[in-house]
Amino acid sequence: MAESSGGTGATERVADVLLLFTDGPPTLGVSQVARELDLSKAVVHRILQSLTSRNLIAYDPETREYRLGPAAAALGSRALRDSDLRAAALPFLAELRDKLHETVTISAKVHGGRVYLDQVVGTHEITMSVELGKRFPLHAGSSGKCVLAHCDPDEVDRLLSGDLLALTPNTPTDPEALRAELARIRERGYAASAGERQGDAGSVAVAVFGPVGVVGAVSVCGPRFRVTEEFVAATAPQLIETADRITARLGGTAPARAVATTGRTT
Length: 266
Fold this sequence. Notes:
Pfam families: HTH_IclR, IclR_C. It is a single chain. This protein is an alpha+beta fold. It has helices spanning 7-23, 30-37, 41-53, 70-82, 84-100, 142-149, 153-160, 175-188, 229-250, and strands at 57-60, 65-68, 103-110, 113-120, 135-136, 191-194, 201-210, 213-223. The protein has nine helices and eight strands. The radius of gyration is 19 Å and the shape is globular.
């Protein structure tokens, strides 16, 4: 990321530094941040010092590394608590979990990916849980893919022309294969995955829409041995109904779609 002058560039650099702590290891040094964001160490040091003075970042003098501070935790908690998408989804998440007995989640689209806002954990002895607030790429997993399928075409082009990180051996990284899958997702109304974001997990997801377009996704996830083709096929219509109810609460409009008769996980 090239350095630029002016207030807008400085604000973007500060935001990028903060966002870097949501994706990678819990602690980062000045050199790591500078390398990841293509900034000078002097600029990174100034930004980290400013954020530390406001408790958004905390400094460990022994390791000489930084981590998110208590003010960042407070901001995150407030954002989750006040999220319109989370509030609209929560009653329906519990209802769907009680029907399917698997973990049900709600994700929000954010800059550079999506984050889990909340979950209602399944009732099986062996079940799945997700990490709230961590940013995940849109090309990996059913929640990300169904959001990506409904993004602006220019945004899709930018993402598919960049580096598509393989989180697992099953993460789709071929741009043309992804384009074809996104078209299928738009047609049938849901996305499915098997071990794409987390090796031992399977999931089904449907996009949620607000007044100005796609805002996130609702998903059902569980161990891969339970998220079979038959489970996906049976679950997709219920998940679409749930997503449409959340969309209605947000004042959005879901696109026309036809649920496929096969639950093939990809």
